Model the fold of this input.
Amino acid sequence: MFADLGAAPSTTVAAATVPYQSLVGDWYRWLATDGLSILLWILGAAIVIRFIRWLGERYSERFEAEFAGSDMLVRSERSKHMRTVIQVISWTLIVLVALIGGLKILGIINVPITSLVGPSAVIGAALGFGAQRVVQDLLAGFFVVTEKQYGYGDVVNLAVTGGATKQGTVEDVTLRVTKLRTSDGEVVTVPNGQIITATNLSKDWARAVVDVPVPGEADIARVTEILEQVGERFFDDERWHKYLLDAPAPLGITDLELDSLTIRMVARTLPGQQFAVSRALRSRIVRALAAEGISVREVPTHTAPAAIGAAGEGGV
Done:
């Protein structure tokens, strides 16, 4: 009897050890098969995504190197569009790789895709409005790229829903968002679906506009003659001639006040150079009119977005 009582605890321990060993064995087998497969899929997806980003950055840097090594003063429309296409393709491939990897992992852990239809319908109904926004952004981004509305390096003015306006230099374009660098150095991310109107200030050519307010008693003919002379000398200046497509010329009176009037002067420039040209031209106009004893009232200035060509930064 005592022998039987002594054997009972060891039998109990052995019986409890068997499920534990079985559980550990199952975990080892799972780690060696499904767990390893999941790890390989995660690592593989991460490597492919890194490679896609590296490849996209390499081609983008190649376009930058070609532009820096050329004698072009501004980027061509083709190079801007190609860089935008590269950014969009990279973003799309990364999303596809992540989606495929996620579906494969769900299959490995035996989660049938069909079983997700019910929960997906509930989640889709709850997040339908948000999903609609995303689809709207993707469609809008698709048309931005295919219609070549703007691209990397363009200076744009975007009117978005709610009446707000975003202005800056395009730094990144994907199917979902457009990123701008403002004149204050801030990066603004605008969902493509919220863009109502896109004004491209640097496509093909731009226009420098200078409004010159002068006293109402000034001799208009003489002021116009001075502005024409300033425009001709400015166009002949080698420092600025390369940025101009035609000579700056006065358009005439654009505004009348009780004691002043405004004469507008315009010039066609290379894309993105209109702000630097306007600053330099405005400075010369002020000096030329001051030399004739004509005072110039406060001249409205335009804020130039960041990263536009350094054509002198207002120098003369």
About this structure: The chain is about 55% helix and 20% strand. Helices lie at 2-69, 77-108, 117-126, 128-146, 220-236, 238-241, 274-291. Confidence is low (pLDDT under 50) at residues 306-314.
